[in-house]
């Protein structure tokens, strides 16, 4: 069985906006986290594209990636992901090709097929365009072609982009992208940090149908894991109340700005909301290092993934940085 020591540890950053701070604070903290992750030895840090959400500041994903790349040295940085239906494939290839040219061997492109927003905002993003999620496979192949070496008589080239061979991942929370990643021979990351229900089925489908490619010779699976790690179980549960409030707000269409922790959630949510939040966080690891280590080992025994990519919505920025320090201590212990 795979051990934590030989499992990759990575970070998915959504640049959460605190209710008492402005967006500039969140963007600067995203860089602080990236620099912290680099020192700790994390393999990669990804940013997620979301729109029209007041609690998430990573909407201009490629721009923020450039800021982080310019102020780190070795950390792999990428998108987890770019929501491809919102963008023309050529533009994505040019953006990430530019980053790959400026920062060789450090940029990665994770692609998702959902809009990452509500229907009204989706229409604003796609104004004048006819693309739909059904075109996702063709768009992925188009991007792969832009990153490959130019072919004779190729009518459209990505400049920069062509020949940069930017690593492309497919992301998913259902079975669609698992099948596509298997057919194209691409690494696959499952969004179990917010949609864990189909994780086991998607991993099995991906592995059973994987076709080796120029990109990958065997399946590679990453799974999202929400975390709140603190010195004690009690402290972690207290800090996790910010996470519970944030997800409750998402599910009830309220402000998603990160709220301070509270002593108890009793009286703050209904029984139905509590159950919905618990389902959302089915893969979450909340507790002391001892508790979380056992939880991660259990996940590894069940799913045998190659990589954990961790999210964290702790309110206090120092405690948030500590969360990732403690996770790396767990990996090395």
Automatic annotation (TrEMBL):
<dbReference type="InterPro" id="IPR036661">
    <property type="entry name" value="Luciferase-like_sf"/>
</dbReference>
<feature type="domain" description="Luciferase-like">
    <location>
        <begin position="17"/>
        <end position="298"/>
    </location>
</feature>
<dbReference type="GO" id="GO:0005829">
    <property type="term" value="C:cytosol"/>
</dbReference>
<dbReference type="InterPro" id="IPR050766">
    <property type="entry name" value="Bact_Lucif_Oxidored"/>
</dbReference>
<dbReference type="InterPro" id="IPR011251">
    <property type="entry name" value="Luciferase-like_dom"/>
</dbReference>
<dbReference type="GO" id="GO:0016705">
    <property type="term" value="F:oxidoreductase activity, acting on paired donors, with incorporation or reduction of molecular oxygen"/>
</dbReference>
<dbReference type="InterPro" id="IPR019949">
    <property type="entry name" value="CmoO-like"/>
</dbReference>
<protein>
    <recommendedName>
        <fullName>Luciferase-like monooxygenase</fullName>
    </recommendedName>
</protein>
<dbReference type="Pfam" id="PF00296">
    <property type="entry name" value="Bac_luciferase"/>
</dbReference>
<comment type="similarity">
    <text>To bacterial alkanal monooxygenase alpha and beta chains.</text>
</comment>
């Amino acid at each position: 069985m795979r051990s934590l020591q030989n499992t990759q540890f990575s970070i998915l950053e959504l640049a959460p906006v605190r209710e008492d701070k402005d967006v500039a604070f969140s963007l600067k903290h995203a860089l602080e986290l990236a620099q912290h992750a680099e020192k700790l030895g994390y393999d990669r840090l990804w940013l997620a594209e979301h729109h029209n959400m007041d609690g998430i500041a990573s909407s201009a994903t490629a721009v923020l990636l450039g800021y982080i790349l310019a102020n780190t040295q070795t950390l792999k940085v990428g998108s987890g992901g770019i929501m491809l239906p919102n963008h023309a494939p050529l533009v994505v290839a040019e953006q990430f090709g530019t980053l790959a040219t400026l920062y060789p061997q450090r940029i990665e492109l994770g692609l998702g097929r959902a809009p990452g927003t509500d229907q009204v905002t989706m229409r604003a993003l796609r104004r004048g365009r006819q693309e739909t999620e059904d075109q996702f496979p063709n768009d992925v192949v188009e991007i792969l072609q832009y990153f490959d070496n130019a072919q004779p008589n190729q009518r459209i080239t990505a400049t920069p982009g062509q020949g940069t061979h930017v690593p492309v991942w497919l992301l998913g929370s259902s079975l669609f992208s698992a099948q596509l990643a298997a057919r194209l021979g691409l690494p696959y990351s499952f969004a179990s940090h917010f949609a864990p229900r189909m994780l086991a089925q998607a991993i099995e489908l991906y592995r059973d149908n994987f076709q080796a490619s120029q990109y990958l010779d065997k399946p590679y699976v990453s799974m999202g894991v929400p975390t709140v790690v603190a010195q004690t179980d009690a402290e972690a549960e207290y800090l996790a109340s910010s996470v519970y409030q944030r997800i409750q707000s998402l599910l009830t269409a309220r402000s998603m700005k990160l709220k301070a922790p509270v002593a108890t959630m009793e009286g703050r949510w209904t029984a139905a909301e509590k159950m919905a939040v618990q389902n959302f966080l089915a893969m979450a690891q909340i507790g002391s290092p001892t508790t979380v280590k056992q939880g991660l080992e259990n996940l590894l025994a069940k799913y045998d993934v190659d990589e954990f990519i961790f999210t964290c919505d702790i309110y206090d920025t120092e405690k948030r940085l500590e969360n990732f320090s403690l996770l790396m201590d767990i990996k090395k212990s």
